């Protein structure tokens, strides 16, 4: 490799701290080794997977070149797999710009501020609910809004409410039923005016009311027979509020509503 090529590599990788490779399993072993070599030259570090070792299993093919053998060793260094189950097309221009800067490691202070305002999403229910509860309480403390704890309405086929025996059976079996059968719905939901909400199902794809759309609670109307709340900052409702109004700012071809 010529001196100018080395200078170009160093300049390109100077401010980059990590590399994300899409379709990693489709990369040839020799290409992976060359990629490692170039990064090594640019960063002045030892190549990944360069430690000498004598493998007692899975010997390399005798037809593999030294580059292919090095690429194979690098591939086996990774022990974490992330499986993409759903892919959503990005339509937000600001988010596209952020992803473009992220690709080249050129994110700005404004990007970090934007990330700090995002809703955290995790498949782990316990962690996600702790995050949501902490964020909602911080919002209520900062804005002076009242926090409402809303109970789920449990019914049987036909719309009839559960009787006392059925409620007892439901409580005694809580947490042991199939997640799919229960729809992964909690028994209580905490809400407040001004809180951020996230759509988790595709409701109306033509209007962009889809999984991942964000909005804000702008109004909560409680049932008329609810007891007086007084000055309580946290209220456990007896019935579900009717209705809860949300503003979704990204309806396609429509103003926020």
Strand element count: 6
The whole-number mean of residue pLDDT values reads: 79
Unreliable spans: 50-58
Counted up, domains total 4
Strand order in the sheet with the most strands: 2-1-5
- Percentage of residues in DSSP E strands: 5-15%
> How far apart lie the N and C ends?
59 Å
Report the C-alpha radius of gyration, rounded: 27 Å
Explained architecture:
- By secondary structure, this protein is α+β, with helices and mostly antiparallel strands.
- It has four domains: 3-75, no CATH class; 90-118, no CATH class; 124-152 and 187-257, no CATH class; 155-182, no CATH class.
- Helix content is 34%, strand content 10%.
- Helix 1 crosses helix 2 (29-43) and helix 2 crosses helix 3 (66-75).
- The protein is elongated, with a radius of gyration of 27 Å.
- 4% of the residues are buried.
- InterPro entries: PIF1_helicase (IPR051055).
- This is DNA helicase.
């Amino acid at each position: 490799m010529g001196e100018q090529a080395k200078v170009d590599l160093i300049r390109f990788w100077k401010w980059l701290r990590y590399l994300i490779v899409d379709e990693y399993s489709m990369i040839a072993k020799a290409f992976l080794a060359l990629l490692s070599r170039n990064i090594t030259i640019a960063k002045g570090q030892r190549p990944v997977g360069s430690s000498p070792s004598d493998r007692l299993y899975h010997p390399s093919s005798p037809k593999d070149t030294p580059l292919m053998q090095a690429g194979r060793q690098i591939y086996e260094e990774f022990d974490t797999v992330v499986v993409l189950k759903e892919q959503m097309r990005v339509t937000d221009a600001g988010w596209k710009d952020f992803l473009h800067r992220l690709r080249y490691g050129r994110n700005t202070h404004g990007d970090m501020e934007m990330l700090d305002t995002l809703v955290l999403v995790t498949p782990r229910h316990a962690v996600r609910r702790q995050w949501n509860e902490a964020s909602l309480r911080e919002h209520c403390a900062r804005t002076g809004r009242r926090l409402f704890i809303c109970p789920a309405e449990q019914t049987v086929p036909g719309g009839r409410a559960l009787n006392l025996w059925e409620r007892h059976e439901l409580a005694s079996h809580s947490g042991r039923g199939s997640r799919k059968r229960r729809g992964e719905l909690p028994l209580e939901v905490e809400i407040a005016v001004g809180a951020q909400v996230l759509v988790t199902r595709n409701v109306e794809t033509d209007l962009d009311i889809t999984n991942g759309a964000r909005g804000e609670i702008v109004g909560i109307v409680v049932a008329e027979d609810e007891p007086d709340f007084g000055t309580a900052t946290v209220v456990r409702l007896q019935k579900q509020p009717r209705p809860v109004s949300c503003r979704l700012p990204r309806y396609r071809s429509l103003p926020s509503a």
